[in-house]
Specification:
There is one protein chain. This protein has about 260 residues and is of the alpha+beta class. Helices cover about 25% and strands about 25% of the residues. The protein contains 2 helices and 19 strands. The chain has helices spanning about 1-25, 225-260; strands at about 40, 45-50, 65-70, 70-75, 85-90, 95-100, 105, 110-115, 120, 130, 145-150, 155-160, 170, 175, 185-190, 190-195, 200-205, 215, 220. It has a 4-stranded antiparallel β-sheet with strand order 7-8-16-15, with no helix packed on it. The chain has a 3-stranded antiparallel β-sheet with strand order 11-12-13, with no helix packed on it. Strands 1-4 form a two-stranded antiparallel sheet. A hairpin with a 7-residue loop joins strand 12 (about 155-160) and strand 13 (about 170). Helix 1 packs antiparallel against helix 2 (about 225-260). The longest helix has about 35 residues, at about 225-260.
Length: about 260
């Protein structure tokens, strides 16, 4: 019975939907995390009677057809890149981007990855690095005798050095944009890599040409709405249960049919 297979595709789709929702909730407190949603499409149809076909020798046309759908399939898990709220931490090297753009990170193999997680620290060379020890680009090195680290909205880093009456500019943290940032591929550790869908990275300056401004002493929170996720979770659970009931009903119908021939 086709209904068994159709309902099974529905159960598989809702199982994946719950998996996506659970990942969103699990990353509720992950800095810079961007939530995902599951996108579905109906499967191909069996056209028992095609709409528009000739219905009689007199030329009458069928106004509607008989099309039997084969179920549902998952076609994507698009990521929402909406802005997360900023929370103040007071740490000098905690940075958040308001608007477009990502921090550019140099990986050990020479490639670049991109992140909205501005939880930066200093390594043993004084470089500003991610929690994984990879330097933010362009590389900023803070002298060990420096104090009063300041990062302005353009990403310019200044410090106060002993014996100097004025601030010393160390460099400028860059920001990178993509024409389709939802096309970035997540690779874990709050980081993404470019893909053909994302387009090539466009390096720029924060707080200019829509690149988004940098806020020092703050971190961007995940853009996950708990109430919305819980509502989606309940809806997915109910949809899964209804598909299970369809399988149960189809099984009972098959049992009744079998009993007729005993």
């Amino acid at each position: 019975m086709q209904a068994l297979h159709t309902a099974a595709t529905g159960m598989a789709a809702q199982e994946l939907n719950v998996q996506v929702i659970s990942n969103n909730i699990a990353n509720l407190r992950t800095t810079g995390f961007k939530k995902q949603t599951a996108a579905f499409q109906d499967l191909i149809y069996e056209h028992v009677r095609r709409v528009g076909a000739q219905a009689s020798d007199q030329g009458t046309i069928l106004p509607v057809g008989v099309d039997i759908g084969g179920g549902v399939k998952t076609v994507g898990t698009p990521r929402s890149m909406t802005q997360g709220t900023l929370s103040q931490t007071g740490n000098d090297l905690d940075l958040a981007i308001s608007g477009e753009g990502f921090f550019k990170i140099l990986m050990p193999d020479g490639t670049y990855q991109y992140t909205r997680d501005g939880t930066f620290q200093m390594d043993n060379q004084g470089r500003v690095v991610t929690a994984g020890g990879n330097p933010v680009q362009p590389t900023i090195t803070i002298p060990n005798n420096a104090s009063g680290i300041t990062v302005n909205e353009q990403g310019q880093v200044t410090v106060t050095l002993p014996g100097s009456s004025s601030n010393t500019v160390l460099g400028q943290i860059g920001v990178t944009r993509f024409i389709n940032k939802a096309g970035l591929q997540p690779v874990g550790s709050n980081q993404f890599v470019e893909t053909t869908s994302s387009g090539t990275p466009q390096d720029g300056t924060a707080n200019s040409e829509g690149y988004g401004k940098i806020t020092q002493g703050s971190l961007e929170q995940a853009n996950v709405d708990v109430v919305s996720e819980m509502s989606d979770l309940i809806a997915a659970q109910r949809a899964y249960e209804m598909n299970a009931k369809v399988i149960s009903a189809a099984d009972q119908m098959m049992q009744s049919t079998t009993a007729l021939f005993r």
